[in-house]
Write a structure and sequence with these properties.
The chain is mainly α and 79 residues long. The chain has one domain. It contains three helices and no strands.
C-alpha cells in the first residue's frame, strides 16, 4: 500500500468520526454517564403509601424531634 492510500484511509476515518461524533457523545459522553447513573438510582426508589399509619406516626415523631429556634420579638423598624 502506498502513502496516498494510507492518507486517504486516514482521511476517511477522520470524516466518519467527525460525522458520528454527536451520536457517539450521546452514548459514551459524560452526560450519558450521568443519565445512566440517574436511571440506576431511580430504579432503586420505591413509592410509600402515605395511608400507612406507621409511616405517618414515624414522620410525626421525626418532625417533633427536630430542633427549633424560638423567634425573638423585634422592635420597631427591625425585621
Amino acid at each position: 500500500m502506498s502513502w496516498p492510500w494510507i492518507a486517504l484511509l486516514a482521511l476517511a476515518v477522520v470524516v466518519i468520526v467527525t460525522a458520528e461524533w454527536p451520536r457517539m457523545e450521546k452514548l459514551l459522553g459524560s452526560e450519558a454517564r450521568r443519565q445512566r447513573d440517574r436511571e440506576r438510582r431511580k430504579a432503586k426508589l420505591r413509592v410509600i403509601n402515605t395511608d400507612d399509619d406507621e409511616f405517618v406516626a414515624s414522620v410525626q415523631r421525626d418532625l417533633e424531634s427536630l430542633p427549633t429556634i424560638e423567634e425573638k420579638e423585634t422592635g420597631p423598624g427591625r425585621r
